[in-house]
Amino acid sequence: MTLLQRYTAASEPRHRAERPPGRRKSRWLAASTTVALAASLLGLTAPAANAVGETVVTLTFDDANADQIPAAAKINALGMPGTFFLPSGYMNRPNYMTTAQAQALQAAGNEIGGHSVTHADLAAVGPDELARQVCGDRATLSGYGLDVQNFAYPFASSNPSAEAAVAACNYNSARGLGDIRSKVAGSETFPFAESLTPANPFYTGAPDQLDETWTLADMQTLVTQAQANGGGWVQLTFHHIGTGIDPVSGVKDPLTVSTEVFNQFADWLANQEATNTTNPVQVKTVKEVINQPTKAVIAGPAAPAPQTTGNLIKNPSLETPGLNGSLLPRCWQGGGYGTNTRTFSNVSPGHAGTATAAQQLVVSGYATGDGKLLPQLDTGECAPSATPGHVYEAKAWYKAVGGVTQFDAHYRTAQGAWVYWTSSPWFAASDTWVQAKWDTPAVPADATAISIGLNLFANGTLTTDDYELYDKAGIKTFSDVATTNQFYNEISWLSNNLITQGYADGTFRPLTSINRDAMAAFLYRLAGSPAVPANAPTFTDVAPSNQFYNEIRWLASRGISTGYPDGTYRPLQPVNRDAMAAFLYRYNGSPAVPGTAPTFPDVTSGNQFYNEIRWLGATGITTGYPDGTFRPVQPINRDAMAAFVYRYNLNFPKGM
Q1: Angle formed by the axes of helices 638-651 and 516-526, to 10°?
Q2: Residues 593-613: pLDDT tens digits?
Q3: Are residues 193 and 82 in the same domain?
Q4: What is the rounded distance in angstroms from the CA atom of residue 505 to the CA atom of residue 590?
Q5: Which of 444, 473, 504, 528 is 20 to 30 A distant from 346 in Cα terms?
């Protein structure tokens, strides 16, 4: 396999199970939301009555896998329709259905339903992403001329917000999984079937998905147990029909039912429908069971517009935990393909020290493929929007033991499909923290967003932290800060994140002392330029005409500076290193200082800022000078200030 083939394969989604790793589907969801989303509250009219005691079977197929097309031909030849839940972002990709195939399925009497744009875990996204995933999927499919009325939750993952979103996007129903009795252990007390008039149409019960372990008898039992217990609605969920062998990796997807077993079941089911008069069976689509008219298509929110300044990565330090019990940080996902085992975990310390976390990937049993950590491949909540033709600068800190690493880049098309884009050169293995840096090629013309993360393609351990991604068009450099400058990276970070813009002549003046007014501005911008309280204190020597009047008032309102006893702030006075420690300490909320915090020989307990300086040392924001001193009353230069603020951010990154 060539390098291109190796990473092209990674562009295709690899959903090996309906439930995300590390999460179990909550079987109480359907019951818990019945009242909140009852049909009467949603303004639905009652569906047409079904016969009492009738058993209705619906054959549903998830994920738009191309190997479902022969299965559709089989059931259609027997006079039975199916319901195909398609993630619009998967379509027209290798090994997935094309638009023409979906249209042909509908023309043959089958139903097309929605399954979100990117097969997202809808219980773990914010409201805008939720609406884009659900409404956007229906809008795209409807734009292909498909009559889309019903939905299936990816991973069977839902909550009241997701159910409300499905209703708001004008679907008529949504299917879950794992709430009907089946061969799966733990389902012994569940109902034998869903009601033909579901109590909650936006979470209809279904047995667990069928996979390679299901026999013909297991599948038949789902139908016969409903027949013997008063009838009802049985929705069977298939993913792959055939071999389920990935054509690139050669690995079999366990969510596969063999063609032989599927055909045997289809023949048996058709015979039941045709000949069983004692316990009649009908095969219907979801649309036929729910029996509601098609509602107007609702457009979801637009994806965020591309930004050209600041770090584009959400949760770049990996500190904010994922939603809904996810084992990965917020806005990040694990990926990979091929024959290998990938294990992700949070580890400490991170790149910035003991108080921070990093993400670790362990690859074992390697034969082919890779493992990787990527910004979420979504419709805009996490993945950075991108401008076609622009070049992006990617950075990340890593430790790689057992193999080299490289950036793996994907992009999203206007249709919501994520495809492989390119990869960076390799970065050497290292058992200590080093920073990988890479400039991408120009973004393709059809790209709307990008996702770039580090991968591992050998047995080994990759630990990553503190990601950065910048649009090169928005990066400002300084004429007096060479790449060889001791603090080049820190000064660049300060500029890229709009904390400094330098001077009008294009310089940064790294060896100039930082004044107290400029220090207020830097901390204010680090905080995100918040609103300044109307009652913020003022100082006798800081007039409203002062360049940083509001920034200084904000500093005082937060208690970061109280000024001097005579009521002045002294804006043009240089900031000494001890005062810098005090500013950052108070900015952090004046936390407890660890008993193990380091000391410096030139900072005694009688020093005004003794504890603040020790706290600065405990966090690793400063290590002092090589001779062990801190030099507290020495004015701090602008380059060293950049380093302090940069390290502060690594230790205490802002949440999402």
Answers
A1: 30
A2: 999 999 999 999 999 999 999
A3: yes
A4: 37
A5: 528
